TrEMBL record, chains A, B:
Protein name (database record): tRNA 2-thiouridine synthesizing protein B
Cited SUPFAM superfamilies: DsrEFH-like
PANTHER family: PROTEIN TUSB
GO biological process, one term: tRNA wobble position uridine thiolation
GO CC field: sulfurtransferase complex
Domain of life: Bacteria
Organism per entry: Halomonas cupida
From TrEMBL, chains C, D:
Positions of the UniProt region annotated as Disordered: 1-20
Source species, domain of life: Bacteria
Family label: Belongs to the DsrF/TusC family.
InterPro entries referenced in this protein's UniProt entry, alphabetically: DsrEFH-like, Sulphur_relay_DsrE/F-like, Sulphur_relay_TusC/DsrF
Coiled coil: none
Signal peptide span: none
Name the UniProt record assigns to this protein: tRNA 2-thiouridine synthesizing protein C
Automatic annotation (TrEMBL), chains E, F:
Recorded name of the encoding gene: tusD
BP GO annotations: tRNA wobble position uridine thiolation
Protein's UniProt name: Sulfurtransferase TusD
Predominant subcellular localization, coarse grouping: cytoplasm
Signal sequence coordinates: none
Organism name: Halomonas cupida
Molecular function terms from GO: sulfur carrier activity; sulfurtransferase activity
Cellular localisation: Cytoplasm
Keyword annotations of the record: Cytoplasm, Transferase
A Pfam family this chain is assigned to: DsrE
Family as reported in the entry's similarity comment: Belongs to the DsrE/TusD family.
Amino acid sequence: MHLHTLNQSPAQSQVYRQALAAMADDDCLLLIEEAVQGALPHLIGPFEGLAGRLYVLEEDLVARGLLERCDDNARVVDVEGFVSLTEQADKVLSWY
Amino acid sequence: MHLHTLNQSPAQSQVYRQALAAMADDDCLLLIEEAVQGALPHLIGPFEGLAGRLYVLEEDLVARGLLERCDDNARVVDVEGFVSLTEQADKVLSWY
Amino acid sequence: MNVNKANEGMNDSNIAHTSITPPSATGELLVILGHAPHGSSLLREGLDMALVAAAFGRRVSLLFMGQGCWALQPGQGEGALGQKGTQSTLEMLEMYDIDNIMVEAESLERLGLESSDLVLSVSVVDAASVQQAIASHTLVMNF
Amino acid sequence: MNVNKANEGMNDSNIAHTSITPPSATGELLVILGHAPHGSSLLREGLDMALVAAAFGRRVSLLFMGQGCWALQPGQGEGALGQKGTQSTLEMLEMYDIDNIMVEAESLERLGLESSDLVLSVSVVDAASVQQAIASHTLVMNF
Amino acid sequence: MRYGILLLGAPYSNQAAHSALRFARTIIARGHQLDSVFFYHEGVHNAARLAAPPQDEPHLVDGWAELQREHGVKLDVCIAAALRRGLMDEEQAGRHGKEGHSVERPFELTGLGQLVDLGLRCDRLVTFAP
Amino acid sequence: MRYGILLLGAPYSNQAAHSALRFARTIIARGHQLDSVFFYHEGVHNAARLAAPPQDEPHLVDGWAELQREHGVKLDVCIAAALRRGLMDEEQAGRHGKEGHSVERPFELTGLGQLVDLGLRCDRLVTFAP
């Protein structure tokens, strides 16, 4: 399993397309920084195929006041969970 | 007339939406830096309504090897032409 | 943001200049905020600029567009490691008599934000009003 | 880019370390280039990284995706004021034995680039091949 | 006409500083007056006096200084944006108990009030950003 | 596990440096070894020794130095990326005939070979970018 991080909002940047193209079937995607917007019901569209493999960073949601608005299909992890994901992943790719 | 500059590619960033929303009927748009991609036939879509008011910076096209590929509906100006546009415009807004 | 700190380097001639220029009745400066808080410091630095202009007696309007609309989301806090957010700055706007605050309707809709659920009392405006606001201010700055 | 310059600060222990590690037969390092040349220096700095790795005997592959594909557009020149482009760096790839160069097909299509009209001899690959390339390299870096 | 430039981009990381300097030179070549370049946000890095780009690349810091020397263009750097990013002159270094400095004349650390003033005083203010 | 971090974002302009430092501390708190943070692209600005952020904001330069002091994390700065952006240590200042310096220990100017080496030596290399 590879972990892919994305830090740009899908409402603003098209870079998420590269992340999705690069993801194998068992890879996970973690939304950090502005990308946490992608965990909101209104903006989760591009990530809908990632059921169970879509993560979003809790601290970055909280800072933006968005924790409560998060879609059920995004798994909220804190920065410890982020590190834990990097432990499990063979490689970490960063899309920005 | 107001001059609006845009420096992000419409293939990558959604910021062009803000520029378009802010443009009055006689305003002009100048594509600079990565935004010169928006003057290519394949990517000019968002700017099609701007006939006669869409400009693109020649030097930035040339640096990217794109001068020859420019759409006929984009008016190519060099940096002198850029300054000239700012002379004619009451205000210059920069979208990035 | 701390206006005094931002002005540390201000020289006397500039203060003299601004104090003899009376503020005009309608907006002199329109600050357009188009970047999200937290992810970059552009929005905060744009707000700092607006507050300083207001502190110097300029009549300032704000327009939130695109990602800038996220500044109006309630319940924001500090960022990573205590990185300052913008909420405290927004709370200072009233004190500085910045009360013409607009947000573009289509941006709100694209992001799924409800105009009834924003931290400030703002005017939701359409593109035509955005264009009018740009026309009716002496100076427009994008952040 | 000038490899010697980029290595100015390299210390001897590091050179010793790399020289005793034999390069593996297949790719050790995959550098993904996802940003346009000229607009930012990321692409150039990613290429610099690839060249340095190759100079140290590492087996390096390149993958152009998204805006990075513009690096393959023919006829590029210097940027504003003579800002260096990437074409001269691309021409050095062969000299450094970097010959596994891929470009993602969908990115090319979105940008309207023709695979027959690119500056380098590249393999046009689909998403599945991108995933394979990531899996088959020891280290993957995004620029 | 009187022009002002607001530069928000750091040199060598994106094209903003190159675009701005090119535009500045062209304004002047067309006979306009460029009052001041204001460096804000990442743009403050343009004032780094120790910049040493390779000889075959444009030297942006020197390029700005030349505008000041030959055309009297003021080079104003936002002090709050500069200090947090590691750019300070001798006076600020003294105040902060630091040795050495990273900004020197013709760049001047100043407040945002100067930017407000520049924008309202000039006929045109043009922003270059990352 | 052995980790390496590659930081490409400048402090105070975007979140990358904050995210990276937060991640670095968490790695260590979980008992991993963080070999080195490599500063490249805009990330070299994290090594600016004269950074003086307001007291109510995180001091990132000091934050990195603390990692080195308390956990022996190496702080490697790409020399080519640093020099063009105005970041040099005393040795480089001497070579370039400049007075003063903007980078000092525990940050070390080094070549990109160190980054290659870090990436291949560590179990995980994690990049934070603007």
